[in-house]
Specification:
With 416 residues, the protein is α/β, with parallel strands linked by helices. The protein folds into three domains: 87 residues, Rossmann fold; 180 residues, UDP-N-acetylmuramoyl-L-alanine:D-glutamate ligase, CATH 3.40.1190; 133 residues, Mur ligase, C-terminal domain (Protein-Tyrosine Phosphatase, Chain A, Alpha-Beta Complex), CATH 3.90.190.20. It is built from 16 helices and 18 strands.
């Protein structure tokens, strides 16, 4: 009890932290520990090895807090969020002169799909200039070097919703389609969060935004794009020299566009040396030399549509299913109806997908599990066809993560 009393004295001038996760732990580390956390997974108050107090969320008293920083994943409806009176995000904390004395030039990258790849590509292009990447890509801002000249931040719609004090120097918004509707409550709110950074950007700063969105008033220079061709034409990029295709081509062009705007340089050799992460249209050959594609990272409709378009010149054995997060799946099935394919459904929404397939007269089979789907495909897959795992759904109903789902896919395929 004495130790707990001392901790209460230590944390009086420190922010209250919502959620005991990677983002908030990094903030506490910057203080040398001794912070107060409130966490949903905690049933009884305890002290960790860094002298932080972790308490149940139900014990939070907004009247005894002067500043709260939240982990991005807590939705607006969460009791901690709705009761907080002085709530900010990690972006507000590390990028505001009010809290930080060193603020690197910062580039935010958001969108429904491709955020991670584009963040990685741009960091690859600017690493020789000292650029570091962080945010949703895995490294919280609290763990980034403040002396780095450039921060490239993969930025989720959750973070954008909670951020109200700071704005990027460059904002790159990739195409957006319905996603996280259960968190934002509507597609309009999702889009609103994605466009929010524009509202506070200043003259001399730049935003690249997909055409067709209702752009809020902004002082930033806005470049609207609607295709890889339009990006290449505006920034004078020779598209024939970029060795990517499909969605990856657009990611590469947008990354090159930023280096062109910042430093008037386009390094084709450097961008072509970039290697795409696992689980994004990763091609695997089985022992019969048949093609299987691991696109487990396709956790929403738009990502799966892009994968189908890439392999649409073949007959596709498509594995779909998982947790669809409340998204409207109609656009996916409208697209699927134009291709020569068969659907194998797995996961929580397997039956829902079967019913949609029947509605759109698409050949389908309910498999429930990934292993069963692979077994079914193995019976009929021909050498000139493709088996594609592109689930258009989250993985947490049957797997630890989309990486785990992709790893299991490869394991099962190589065991055939």
């Amino acid at each position: 009890m004495v130790q707990l009393h001392k901790n209460r004295e230590i944390i009086m001038n420190r922010p209250i932290l919502f959620g005991y996760g990677i983002t908030t732990k990094a903030i506490a580390f910057n203080f040398g520990g001794g912070c107060q956390f409130f966490d949903d997974k905690t049933d009884k108050r305890y002290i960790d090895r860094d002298n932080n107090i972790i308490s149940p969320s139900s014990e939070f008293n907004p009247n005894s807090s002067n500043l709260e920083i939240t982990t991005p994943s807590l939705p607006p409806s969460h009791p901690l969020i709705s009761s907080a009176k002085n709530l900010i995000s990690e972006y507000d904390y590390f990028l505001s002169p009010k809290f930080s004395d060193k603020i690197p030039f910062n580039i935010w990258i958001s969108g429904t799909n491709g955020k991670t790849t584009t963040t990685q590509m741009l960091t690859h292009l600017l690493s020789n200039r000292g650029a570091l990447s962080g945010g949703n890509i895995g490294t919280p801002l609290g763990s980034l070097d403040k002396n780095a000249p450039i921060w490239i931040l993969e930025t989720s719609s959750f973070t954008l919703h909670h951020t109200n004090m700071v704005y990027p120097n460059i904002y790159l918004l990739l195409p957006i389609t319905p996603d996280h509707i259960d968190w934002h409550t509507s597609q309009d709110e999702y889009i609103k969060s994605k466009l929010k950074p524009l509202e506070g950007m200043r003259e001399g700063e730049m935003a690249l935004i997909p055409k067709g969105l209702q752009i809020p008033q902004t002082d930033a220079f806005v470049v609207e794009y609607d295709s890889s061709k339009s990006i290449a034409e505006f920034f004078d990029i020779d598209i024939s020299k970029v060795n990517f295709k499909g969605a990856f081509l657009e990611d590469a062009l947008l990354s090159l566009a930023i280096t062109k705007a910042l430093f008037n340089e386009i390094d084709y050799n450097l961008i072509n040396s970039f290697k795409v992460d696992n689980h994004r249209q990763e091609e695997i050959l089985d022992n019969q030399n048949r093609l299987w594609v691991d696109d487990s990272k396709a956790t929403n409709v738009d990502a799966s549509i892009k994968a189908i378009e890439c392999f649409g010149d073949r007959y596709i054995h498509l594995i779909l299913g998982g947790i669809d997060k409340g998204a409207d799946l109609t656009p996916l099935f409208q697209t699927l109806s134009r291709y020569n394919l068969k659907i194998y459904t797995i996961g929580t929404n397997a039956q829902k997908l079967i019913e949609l397939a029947q509605k759109y007269k698409i050949d389908s089979i309910k498999c429930d599990t990934l292993k069963s789907a692979i077994s079914q495909i193995d019976k009929t897959l021909k050498i000139d066809e493709v088996a594609l795992l592109s689930p258009a759904s989250a993985s947490f109903d049957q797997f630890k993560s989309y990486q785990d789902r992709g790893d299991k896919f490869k394991e099962f395929v190589l065991d055939i």
